[in-house]
């Protein structure tokens, strides 16, 4: 199962047992072996905008960025940080209102989405989008309806 560090906490409530369950379900559905650590970090909009510009050449803020730091994991130790999910608390709150989800559920949706990016799923092409969206929906249903 995915190990993670919640580097800092947002002003809204999040349930770490739900995060554990999300990672457990992803681990089972995708059948990925993972023993390294993922950081979950919240940044202000200016900081996330700079990262988005530097790494994606997009000069605007975003809700979440996903980083995987290695292509070859064979020499990593169990507690090495291999990935990071960078989130904008402001964007989560705005999207929670826009999509009628609430802050906590918007956060969980972004964790699912960004974790799939970390393990090499993408949505640049239509068929990739369909595959990734179906997987996100399946994980969401497993987490909250089973």
Low-confidence parts lasting 5 or more residues at pLDDT below 50? none
Write down the CATH topology.
Collagenase (Catalytic Domain)
The percent range for strand residues is 15-25%
Q: Give the overall shape.
A: globular
Q: What is the succession of H and E elements?
A: EHEHEEHHH
CATH class: Alpha Beta
Query: Number of domains in the coordinates?
Result: 1
Q: What would you say the CATH architecture is?
A: 3-Layer(aba) Sandwich
Would you count the extended β strands for me?
Answer: 4
Terminal CA distance reads: 19 Å
Q: What are the main properties of this structure?
A:
146 residues, alpha/beta, Collagenase (Catalytic Domain), 5 helices
Written description of the protein model:
This protein has one domain (3-145): Metalloproteases ("zincins"), catalytic domain (Collagenase (Catalytic Domain), 3-Layer(aba) Sandwich), CATH 3.40.390.30. It has a four-stranded mixed β-sheet with strand order 1-2-4-3. It contains five helices and four strands. The mean pLDDT is 87. The chain is an alpha/beta fold. Helix 3 packs across helix 4 and helix 4 (103-118) packs across helix 5 (126-145). The protein is globular, with a radius of gyration of 15 Å.
Summarize the structure.
The protein is of the alpha/beta class.
Sequence-ordered SSE layout with sheet pairings:
Elements: E1 3-6, H1 16-30, E2 37-43, H2 45-56, E3 64-68, E4 81-88, H3 89-99, H4 103-118, H5 126-145
Parallel strand pairs: 1-2, 2-4
Antiparallel strand pairs: 3-4
């Amino acid at each position: 199962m995915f190990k993670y560090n919640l580097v800092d906490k947002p002003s809204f409530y999040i349930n770490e047992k739900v995060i554990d369950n999300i990672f457990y379900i992803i681990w089972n559905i995708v059948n990925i072996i993972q023993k390294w650590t993922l950081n979950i970090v919240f940044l202000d909009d200016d900081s996330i905008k700079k990262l988005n510009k530097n790494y994606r050449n997009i000069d605007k803020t975003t809700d979440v960025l996903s980083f995987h730091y290695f292509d070859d994991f064979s020499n990593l130790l169990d507690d090495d940080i291999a990935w990071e999910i960078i989130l904008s608390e402001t964007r989560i709150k705005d999207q929670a209102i826009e999509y009628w989800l609430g802050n906590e559920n918007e956060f969980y949706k972004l964790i699912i989405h960004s974790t799939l990016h970390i393990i090499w799923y993408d949505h640049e092409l239509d068929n990739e989008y369909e595959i990734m969206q179906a997987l996100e929906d399946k994980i969401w249903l497993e987490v909250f309806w089973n």
